[in-house]
Design a protein that fits this description.
The protein has a six-stranded mixed β-sheet with strand order 1-5-4-9-3-10. A two-stranded antiparallel sheet has the order 2-6. The protein has a two-stranded antiparallel ribbon with strand order 7-8. The chain folds into two domains: 151 residues, 3-Layer(aba) Sandwich (Lysozyme-like), CATH 3.40.80.10; 69 residues, no CATH class. It is 32% helix and 13% strand. The longest helix is centred in the middle third of the chain and has 18 residues. It is α/β, with parallel strands linked by helices and 244 residues long.
Length: 244
């Protein structure tokens, strides 16, 4: 795998760190040139370990052993501030605030190759391969509802529902605390308020954009989310106990 070195000054040096997560982002900028410029600009205070441009070319900006500044305020399954133990991968895409577009096949091919290498090298669990919106649902939407998690799953990367679950009736008020509790058990930072509040909406949108993309055509939440979450929690437990 050919990797160009384009060092960024935006990192914290480490002699060693335990790498537990891979977090996938889109750049949300108009061009790869603009993205690289920002990721290497000391004033921006943002970076990543790897960057994939629209042609599928791969660059390393921060060495794996060092902490890149990509996740910011983040949380997953009781872990906080995930920069310290994660690898951040940025993929060039204009994003939902500009002109969101399907990811190029060459980008996904090189991403799969990179993640398989990182998984093997650092013994990363599939449950710990996430999108930025999973770990920061109140702030971020990337890599978004067009990101092909299903293609990664075919290469044994990440987890997705193990079977297709048909839509059911619109979520009842009495089911809201059940969904909140299951989202929390799965890994999201969410309080069980028993109300469809803003936090719950943001977490549900992040969840559906990753694990139930077929539910993203509208923002009506239905009770099929409950068996989907129970299935994923079962997969989470298997992933965490599985020896890679």
């Amino acid at each position: 795998m050919k990797i160009a070195n384009k060092p960024s000054p935006n990192y914290e040096a480490r002699r060693y760190r335990k790498i537990k997560y891979i977090i996938i982002h889109y750049t949300g900028m108009g061009s790869a040139k603009a993205s690289i410029r920002r990721l290497r600009d000391k004033k921006s205070k943002v970076s990543c370990h790897y960057f994939i441009d629209e042609k599928g070319s791969l660059s390393r900006l921060v060495d794996d052993r060092n902490v890149a500044w990509h996740a910011g305020m983040s949380f997953w399954n009781s872990d906080k501030s995930l920069n310290k133990n994660s690898i951040g991968i940025e993929i060039q895409n204009k994003g939902e605030h500009l002109r969101y577009e399907k990811f190029k096949s060459k980008q996904i091919q090189i991403l799969i190759e990179l993640i398989l290498d990182l998984k093997n090298k650092y013994n990363i669990k599939d449950y710990h391969i996430l999108g930025h919106s999973d770990v920061s649902p109140d702030r971020k939407t990337d890599p978004g509802y067009l990101f092909p998690w299903n293609l990664l799953k075919k290469k044994k990367i990440g987890i997705l529902p193990s079977r297709k679950i048909l839509r059911k009736k619109i979520l009842k008020n009495t089911e809201i605390p059940i969904v909140q509790a299951l989202l929390k058990e799965f890994g999201y930072q969410i309080q069980v308020t028993e109300n469809m509040d803003l936090q719950t909406i943001l977490v549900l949108n992040a969840f559906q954009s990753h694990y139930a993309q077929d539910r993203m055509k509208n923002f009506l939440y239905d009770s099929s989310i409950i068996p989907i979450l129970r299935d994923l929690i079962s997969q989470k437990n298997r992933s965490l106990t599985k020896k890679n």
